[in-house]
Amino acid sequence: MKQGTVKFFNATKGFGFIVDSETNNEIFVHISGCIDEIRENDQVQFEVEEGRRGLNAVNVQLS
């Protein structure tokens, strides 16, 4: 699993972005891909899948 930090997350709209610790790339995250409830600046573990518009973080959980 990859490691990263939640850069932005809007709980009302249900999406945000995670910065990958290795690559510094921003990866889109939707609330449907979250195992745990996340907030901005949380340290998380996640997997990456190809979505319709690019990479999506899935199986996101607090680390």
From TrEMBL:
InterPro entries in the cross-refs: Cold_shock_CspA (IPR012156), Cold_shock_domain (IPR050181), CSD (IPR011129), CSP_DNA-bd (IPR002059), NA-bd_OB-fold (IPR012340)
Residue stretches making up the CSD domain: 1-62
Primary localisation category: cytoplasm
Annotated protein name in UniProt: Cold-shock protein
GO molecular function: nucleic acid binding
Subcellular location: Cytoplasm
Residues annotated as signal peptide: none
Gene Ontology CC annotation, any one: cytosol
Alphabetized UniProt keyword annotations: Cytoplasm
